[in-house]
Amino acid sequence: MKKIGVMINWNKARAAETLRRVAADAAAIGLELTVDRRAAAVAGELPLCPADEFAARVEAVIVLGGDGTVLDAARQLQGSGLPLMGLNIGSLGYLTCVGEEQFGEALRALREDRCTRDRRTTLAGRIARAAGGGTGLADALNEVVVSRGSSGRLGWFDLEIDGESVMTSACDGMVVSTPTGSTAYALSTGGPILLPGTRALEIAVISPHTLSFRPLVVPDSSVIALCVARGATVAPVVSVDGQDGLPLAVGDRVELRLSPRSVTFLHLAGYSPCAVMSRKLGWGGRRDKTGGR
Amino acid sequence: MKKIGVMINWNKARAAETLRRVAADAAAIGLELTVDRRAAAVAGELPLCPADEFAARVEAVIVLGGDGTVLDAARQLQGSGLPLMGLNIGSLGYLTCVGEEQFGEALRALREDRCTRDRRTTLAGRIARAAGGGTGLADALNEVVVSRGSSGRLGWFDLEIDGESVMTSACDGMVVSTPTGSTAYALSTGGPILLPGTRALEIAVISPHTLSFRPLVVPDSSVIALCVARGATVAPVVSVDGQDGLPLAVGDRVELRLSPRSVTFLHLAGYSPCAVMSRKLGWGGRRDKTGGR
Amino acid sequence: MKKIGVMINWNKARAAETLRRVAADAAAIGLELTVDRRAAAVAGELPLCPADEFAARVEAVIVLGGDGTVLDAARQLQGSGLPLMGLNIGSLGYLTCVGEEQFGEALRALREDRCTRDRRTTLAGRIARAAGGGTGLADALNEVVVSRGSSGRLGWFDLEIDGESVMTSACDGMVVSTPTGSTAYALSTGGPILLPGTRALEIAVISPHTLSFRPLVVPDSSVIALCVARGATVAPVVSVDGQDGLPLAVGDRVELRLSPRSVTFLHLAGYSPCAVMSRKLGWGGRRDKTGGR
Amino acid sequence: MKKIGVMINWNKARAAETLRRVAADAAAIGLELTVDRRAAAVAGELPLCPADEFAARVEAVIVLGGDGTVLDAARQLQGSGLPLMGLNIGSLGYLTCVGEEQFGEALRALREDRCTRDRRTTLAGRIARAAGGGTGLADALNEVVVSRGSSGRLGWFDLEIDGESVMTSACDGMVVSTPTGSTAYALSTGGPILLPGTRALEIAVISPHTLSFRPLVVPDSSVIALCVARGATVAPVVSVDGQDGLPLAVGDRVELRLSPRSVTFLHLAGYSPCAVMSRKLGWGGRRDKTGGR
User: Residue A95: which of A144, A36, A142, A35 has the closest Cα?
Assistant: First the structure.
């Protein structure tokens, strides 16, 4: 590869410094970085291009920041087909697994086309309004969440799978997650971890009123609908990948299925999703760290 | 007892019919019901009195409805010292354990002063504002919840116990619950059940970002503070017993301790909180209902 | 179909009576039942054949009992390719979803070849002994469990996926489950429910010593090994589908992968695994059954 | 204080070296250590006394090892009334919170009687045999566990509280834990954490067959019985603080209540159980360690 786009999280304290270092490293090996105006002001004379025109101009995109930055980048590049590589500023994430000491190696691997490709499925969604009509949602790399608003009262939601009503739940909300999203919000709600590559989706209920529900794992060919049940007394919202939500009305249905658009990540050789998880979650389980049982 | 106040949930379909029946049964045994204007219109000529003046006029209050109705009644009667008896319209609750077939028996037990008294602790709270000043909260019979608003972004909250910082958590919110509230929202978040009479409070985190948290049970002499951490980017709210929430700002602290005001419930002889739970949660565990493991 | 084998759980109180009724119903529609000697003594003159010779003699097998009876039948018929239909004596199970009122309908559906086929994956396993050599395990329709023995001390187990060490855990044991088994023991350990047809396996840890583990869902092409870690001080066992366990020594590895042999279930038209689950777990969530939150 | 007993876990690699250092430090400040023969062989000429005669000879006991060592020491000293101080060899535990860099300070605090006293409740138990007669159990500082043996089949247990049957559960077992034990095995089974000083006991079910159970917290004045239900097909065991178990028969009852004998721990000034938990469980929750949600 020769032409690489750059997206960056300017909220990170060391963003500018990191960008300058990456730009110098890239120049040294003949990798041409394409950036937006703000990045150019920091990193010196580089080809300029807004991210939504990257598809015509670069072969891949490096994302400097954290996992949230990668989610934002994936949303902006949706449908472009451009592969992403996450370079971490700060501590390692699930999607930003290249640490700062590996930045040079990562740029060389891009230059020499030696990266592993890791295709992640995404969720396509739309709201079917009870009042008629519908609204498309952005593809979700992590998850789609339907939740009650900020009222203290319970929400009521129906879950349908492949046209069949499976459950009505009084709860704070429901989550439909990709394998990629299974280590994000779905995990907080008590869901399992789906290894990347598992051909499945996860459905979790947030703070269910009854004790009988357990997270569901379904084939990723399933069509899932989350519906605002008749009796809901609050204004629920639907949110994609942690973005601000769209309001829903009683009878509205959020219909979800696998998107035809996936997101491809580039990794250094030796990347292992299990190793990333083990390090993030502390699965080493060193014997001498355990107490007296 | 001779004089009994009545509070009723008019949203229940059979409210009027039930009230008429209770009024007739009470009259037949010389129990004088005191009601508000709306109830009088349904039940015939009865002494009128708004609920907030019940303390001066009646010896106890019967609440016709569900557990939510009892929570509302307890809030309105806060500080009155009046004991409550929950008569269920619909299916049995934790706080409304007298079913319709037992209404006559319940009225006789009140008349003859044969009820068991069951004192439940409540939580007193106030908001200490970062900007100075404070706001008192209504006593909570169930729980106080601090939660992020409707944004898709995480909230950040600090937990302090007896002045000591215990935990900072990225999460959807935190719950501090009485034993009474342990079968309500705290249960939905994965918390344990505290039997009534346990001298403890429960602290639970809602959808915590990390896996290391577990619900905490602390002596009910503890002073607990839930604080909106510096970095919160959303507008959190504090809510008491499922009521609409008050907005919080960064640095605001919700300080909670046992209230000097408890709520006393009246039960029929033979009342057992374990039996109520077992029936509500289906703990019978009949052998022939189990599958093949 | 014309020739059907019968397997039956004689421990069920109404086993004999049920068998007689099924035999009469079958005779009336020209369905020939093949049974073992004990069943013949109860049901009258029927072709005799031990279950392990069913493959050569019948086209399908009906199993009269509960889910445990179906697990036993599947083990005995392993590799025969014979499809099974579970007829329930007692309350409905996940694998015995035909209730007594539907027995006549089920026999006619078999006779007229109108059943739905539902192929379930199974797990093939072997023990690779540290001391050399190995032992094959029966295929698991539900799950394989490696657990510490009856000692009060912790066990130490390693989990490997596709040759990579993922986790070392101090715990009571580990479970690897098929989607079919996800509603059995794996559910008890806190695992998710995998809908039948999900191309995945579930890995759960039983009572883990650390808080950081969550059930894992992996592609069903994965090769999974559960290993007895060096430091284990107790005698662990490996158990298939709840059968009595085989002892393991330190360093022994239980290697698991999808079996080439699946089990096919026959269902009445309209069978829905979600409906079975919803009924077994009580997911109806009727509004009037909820308490006051 | 002047006379201190020493108990030590000889399985720790640095046991001898640590003991020598402690002995030297103690001698320097006039603290007389009393040890057993093995320790004397290592640490030089010190007063000899077996642990079961410590009560008549020393004022307090220091325990060198981990939490398991403290459990063993508490069992050996049961009823002696001697306070314990846990000095950690290895990584910090819940009961061994004095790290090696604080050993000198700890010895001085003992000498000058400046330690905080922390009284922990324990559980007294006995087995009431179905066949008649009974067997006393050692007091439990952590927990009493009734569990199925090593069979793959489910156990069936009944839970009684204050003479009332609360639940029958098909499960792997049941745990009754003190607040001290709430961070040990009970935590592994999904139970809450009870802060020391909470006047409560915790009851948890291990891998329950049904989804409706939640850990129970009850007043520590409760009398709890765990009973082997009629239908159990395996040989269950009862185990105290992780010791090897005693076998139980169908109908046997394990009766538990607060013991009149507590265990007193000595801590350095500034000891905080919340701080110990926060450090053990990683509750710091630093913002820059979180991924992208």
Answer: A142
